[in-house]
Fold this sequence. Notes:
By secondary structure, the chain is an alpha/beta fold. 40% of the residues lie in helices and 15% in strands.
Amino acid sequence: MPPASPPRRVTMAQVARRAGVSMMTASYTYNRPDRVSEASRAKVLAAAAELGYAGPDASARSLRYGSSRTLGLVLGEHLTYAFEDPQATSFLAGIADVCAERGYGLLIVPITGTDDDAERVAAAAVDAFIVWTTADDDPVLDAARGTQRPVVIHGGPARAGFTLVSIDNRAAAREVGRAAFAGAARPAVISFPLDRARRTELVAGLDPAAALFPVTRERLEGYREAAEDLGIRWSDVLVGVCATNDAGEARSLAEQLLALDPPVDAIAAMSDQQALGVLRAGVAAARAVPERLSVTGWDDSAVAADNALTTLAQDLRAQGVACARAALGEDPGSSADAWSLVRRASTRP
């Protein structure tokens, strides 16, 4: 017979659920008991006893009394995303620049959407956390707060006590949206996901408030303002929501948009990768750019330059540097206005 698998370690997240308290309360029970009421502490300890939870990992607890000289990047994507997505790799390189200068290590903490995400964050042996843009309701934010270590969030959401590093996505989207929608009769948007469920869908006049990812929400707000500036009703604008930042998925949605009667004649994409998929769909549908199809991207990556794509330039490597510096207690400066519109041949004059 094959040897029996060792029992899976009970997590603090499971204890918190059994006790009916937040992850922060469960964490404080063990690490900051003076911040927890006697009643809540009793609930947590009783739940821990029922589940056989022995307490937080000793190596993680020791960080409260010393330094690991390691920064933790909480990545709400598949681990390979950090090395394959152009936005993520630029951002990661900026963090790595600071770590290399200061003699720090970098630990990537991938978030999988499972129940042990919060416990994985709480147990990470790091001095501070940098959180890649996530959703308003992501439980890992409370888990990171419960560690009492510095937390820097890239892109959003903004949380009291955390440092936010981000451009003004709403203002930037309004500017690039005007370039995309100028002269259009039926514009559309290819969007990042709305929430952690990551559904792919096509919606007319999507309410930006439906997006729990702040970056998605703010860019939709900017695109809506751009449409209204040009006399276009937002209710007439179709939004294709992608589950990931992927050229293939964006192409599939763009093909649906271009097959409509009448077809869309302008598409603002939330990344250059998505815009590349739109351009490929335009070629397949014989829609000349920009005469019959105006296209914009976001990030001003090499893909944008290679395809003469009008796009929104931002420096994600510099934002990674700012996040790392903030995590180490330094002034990150302001990134809000660190963007610009780059006009090329994919939009109408």
